[in-house]
Amino acid sequence: MKLRATLILLALLPANAADLVLHDAQVQVFFSPHGGCTEAVVSTIAGARKTVLVQAYSFTSAPIAGALVAAHTRGVDVRIILDKSQEKDRRSDLAMVSAAGIPVWIDTVRGIAHSKVMVIDGGTVITGSFNFTAAAEKSNAENLLVIHDPGLAALYIANWQDRLTHSEPATANTPSEKP
């Protein structure tokens, strides 16, 4: 189900981050299984013109990985931070995106890097419980928000950059280096 709504969102962030109230943010809402979450992610990536920043816990969706590779091929700056489990998961699309030349890092957080976030062109945030996996689309009860708001995107970009400082280049033959 695809809903468009104008919402006021309150993002409660960690202690050192500011609270943020968004007015008139355009929000698309999706639910799985079979609710169009993967299609929403792929179509949003397809519209990217400058940047796509990714944080993912599990990364096994071929359509999403393919959309990231296609964006990179057309000149979009795509960068990915993954949970450490993705270096050992045979189903992970880490090798695919690395082989395409997309920089990939592994978050070295003590626990798991459980984020499921993309920031597109500094103005759109994709987030929710939806893992970037086939199971999340076909089997699991998940949710996905596509939020169009530059202020919120700036907070997610700052978080992405902070997580990068806690990350190391992936070992799947990637050309990744911290900028």
Word description of this protein:
This protein has 179 residues and is α+β, with helices and mostly antiparallel strands. The chain has a single domain, classed as Endonuclease Chain A (Endonuclease, Chain A), CATH 3.30.870.10. It is built from five helices and nine strands. It has helices at 37-46, 62-73, 94-99, 134-138, 150-164; strands at residues 3-11, 20-32, 51-56, 77-83, 104-107, 116-120, 124-127, 142-148, 167-169. α1 (37-46) packs parallel to α2 (62-73). The longest helix is centred in the C-terminal third of the chain and has 15 residues, at 150-164. The chain is globular, with a radius of gyration of 15 Å. The model is unreliable at 1-17 and 173-179 (pLDDT under 50).
Short description:
With 179 residues, this protein is of the alpha+beta class.
